[in-house]
Predict the structure.
Amino acid sequence: MLAEGGADNGEVVAGVPASAADIAVSNSADSGTGGEALTSTREDLTVFFSIGVVIDVLLMTAFLVWAVGQWRKKK
């Protein structure tokens, strides 16, 4: 960002860092500004996909019940 005088001297203007390096420093996990790194573990994904499989099974079961009901209604 350009400082008020128009020169890019690396100062922070209105709380906005002047360079990409300043942004990286302000977002680092040890800066204490809430920029903690997101970490996901294999267990998190396992739970996510397990929930997805349960939902898929429920949807397929509901579809099959509906399809069989429609098929029997025509006969």
Summary: Helices lie at 20-26, 42-74. The mean pLDDT is 74. The CA atoms of residues 19 and 51 lie 43 Å apart.
